[in-house]
Write a structure and sequence with these properties.
The protein is α+β, with helices and mostly antiparallel strands. It has 3 domains: 156 residues, 2-Layer Sandwich (Alpha-Beta Plaits); 62 residues, DNA polymerase, domain 1 (Orthogonal Bundle), CATH 1.10.150; 156 residues, DNA polymerase, Y-family, little finger domain (Dna Ligase, domain 1, 2-Layer Sandwich), CATH 3.30.1490.100. It contains 16 helices and 14 strands. Strands 5-6-1-7-8 form a 5-stranded mixed β-sheet. The chain has a 4-stranded antiparallel β-sheet with strand order 9-12-10-11, with helices on one face. Strand 5 and strand 6 form a beta hairpin. The N and C termini lie far apart (75 Å). It binds a DNA duplex through helix 9 and strand 9.
DNA sequence: TCTGGGGTCCTAGGACCC
DNA sequence: TCTGGGGTCCTAGGACCC
C-alpha cells in the first residue's frame, strides 16, 4: 500500500496524559487508597473521576454515586479538591518543562511537548526521552501518565490512548496506516459523533478510511478543522505546540444545576445573580470586561431558553450588569416551566475603553467598592460579600463563612 | 447515555456600506 | 429609483474538546 507523503524532517511530539488524574492525586496524598475502587465527586453526588479498579466494575463517569455503589459496593467516594489537583498539575508541567521548553498545557492533566531535535541533547531516541519523562513524573509525584509519541499532535494524542494506563506508544510514519486501521473514526481527536455519522454514510468507518480519502472529498464535504485533522492523520503536521500560558478568556460562563427543578422566579433570578457575581469576579481577576451578556434557563428536558444583551459599555461589576440581567431574565422566563439550571455567559473584551458619555465617576465608585469586596472574598472565602438578590440561592446551599449582604449599593 | 461545568473555533447569514 | 456587484463586520449556532 502506498505510504502517505510525509515531510522529510518531521517533528517529534509527545502527548502526555495522566491516568485517572483526580483519583491518582487523591491516592498520592493518601496511599491507603491505592489499588482500591475509589472515585471523586462526592459533593455533587455524581462520579467525576474514578480509579481503574472502579472502572473494571463497570462504574462510569457521570453516574450517580448511589448507582455506582450498587455496582461496586466497596466504592470509596471522596469530595473533589481542585486546589490539590491544580498543584499536581503545575508540578507535572514543571517536570515536563525540564525536558523541553516547548510545552503546551492542554488541560489540567494533559500536555503536548515538542521534542524535535532533542535526541542529541539526551543522547537517546525520542521514545527513550518520553520514557524518562514518564519515569520522572511517577517518581516525583507518585502518579502515572500515558505517553504517545509521533510526528503530529493528532497522532501523538491518539498514541497516548493506545496503552493506557502507564503506557508508552510510538507511531512512526511507516506504522501510521497499520495503527489507524484499528481505530474507529469517531475516536479521532477532532471528530465527534456528528461528523462520524456523516462519514459512515460514505463508508468511512475507521481512522484509516478517513485518512485515505482523497482531498477532493474532504474539500467538498468538510470544513477547515476536519481538513487539518485529515492532514495530521496523514503525517503532515499543521497544529503547532502552543507554549504560551493562558492569560485571557474570550468568554467566561457560570452555570449551576439544582434539584428539584424550580419555577420560582425569585429563586431563579437569585441563581443567575450568583452566576453573574462569580463570572464577574473571574473577569476582574483577568482584567477583562463584558461587552455582551447571555442568559440561559434550562428545563428538565435539556431545552434552553436564552437571550443575549449588548451592553452600552464594557463592565465587570455586577451592579452595572443587573439591568441587563433583569432584561434578559424577563425575556426568557416563562411561568409554569420547571427549570433545572441557570447559566450566564460574559463575552469579554480586553481593552476596556469608556466613552466620554459614560458616567466614569459612578463606575469608579462601584469599582472601588468591588476592589474591597474582592479583597474580603479572597481573605474570607468566596461569596462572603455578595449582592442582596443572590441571598435566596446562597441560603439554600452552602452557607458562607461570613455573610455580609450588600443590601443596596448607593452610588 | 445524555451526567455537569467549563471552554474554543468555524461558518453562514444578515446588516450595512460603497 | 432600480439593479447589480462586492466588501466588511457582527452574531447565532454548530461542533468539538476536557
Amino acid at each position: 500500500m502506498a505510504q502517505f507523503c510525509i515531510n522529510s524532517w518531521p517533528m517529534a511530539v509527545a502527548h502526555i496524559d495522566a491516568d485517572a488524574f483526580f483519583v491518582a492525586c487523591e491516592q498520592a496524598l493518601n496511599p491507603s487508597l491505592n489499588g482500591k475502587c475509589a472515585a471523586v465527586g462526592k459533593e455533587r453526588g455524581i462520579i467525576t473521576a474514578l480509579s481503574y479498579e472502579a472502572k473494571a466494575k463497570g462504574v462510569k463517569r457521570g453516574m450517580r454515586t448511589f448507582e455506582a455503589k450498587k455496582l461496586c459496593p466497596g466504592l470509596i467516594v471522596i469530595e473533589s479538591d481542585y486546589e490539590s489537583y491544580s498543584l499536581f498539575s503545575l508540578r507535572m508541567f514543571n517536570i515536563i518543562k525540564n525536558f523541553s521548553p516547548q510545552v503546551e498545557e492542554y488541560s489540567i492533566d494533559e500536555a503536548f511537548v515538542d521534542l524535535t531535535g532533542l535526541r542529541r541533547v539526551f543522547s537517546c531516541s525520542y521514545e527513550a526521552i518520553a520514557k524518562k519523562m514518564q519515569s520522572a513524573i511517577e517518581k516525583e509525584l507518585s502518579i502515572t501518565v500515558s505517553v504517545g509519541v509521533s510526528i503530529t499532535k493528532t497522532l501523538a494524542k491518539m498514541a497516548s490512548k493506545l496503552k493506557k494506563p502507564n503506557g508508552l506508544a510510538v507511531i512512526e510514519g511507516k506504522d501510521i496506516q497499520n495503527i489507524l486501521r484499528d481505530i474507529p473514526a469517531e475516536d479521532v481527536w477532532g471528530i465527534g459523533n456528528n461528523t462520524a455519522c456523516l462519514l459512515r454514510k460514505f463508508g468511512i468507518n475507521s481512522a484509516l478510511d478517513f485518512a485515505l480519502k482523497d482531498e477532493g472529498f474532504i474539500d467538498k464535504y468538510l470544513s477547515k478543522p476536519y481538513k487539518e485533522t485529515w492532514l495530521e492523520l496523514r503525517g503532515n503536521s499543521v497544529f503547532g505546540i502552543n507554549a504560551s500560558v493562558k492569560s485571557s478568556y474570550k468568554t467566561i460562563s457560570k452555570a449551576k444545576s439544582f434539584y428539584p427543578p424550580s419555577d420560582d422566579e425569585t429563586f431563579l433570578f437569585s441563581e443567575l445573580t450568583k452566576n453573574l457575581e462569580n463570572a464577574c469576579a473571574k473577569a476582574r481577576r483577568f482584567n477583562l470586561a463584558a461587552v455582551r451578556l447571555s442568559v440561559f434557563l434550562k428545563t428538565r428536558d435539556f431545552k434552553a431558553a436564552g437571550a443575549q444583551i449588548r451592553l452600552t459599555f464594557p463592565a465587570a461589576l455586577p451592579p452595572l450588569l443587573m439591568e441587563a440581567l433583569k432584561e434578559g431574565f424577563k425575556y426568557i422566563y416563562a411561568k409554569g416551566y420547571l427549570y433545572r439550571q441557570t447559566e450566564i455567559v460574559l463575552h469579554l473584551t480586553e481593552n476596556v475603553q469608556y466613552s466620554l458619555f459614560d458616567d466614569i465617576i459612578k463606575i469608579d465608585r462601584i469599582r472601588r467598592i468591588y476592589d474591597s469586596i474582592d479583597f474580603i472574598n479572597k481573605r474570607f472565602g468566596r461569596n462572603s460579600v455578595h449582592l442582596a438578590s443572590s441571598m435566596p440561592s446562597l441560603n439554600a446551599g452552602h452557607s458562607p463563612r461570613l455573610s455580609i449582604p450588600l443590601i443596596d449599593i448607593k452610588v
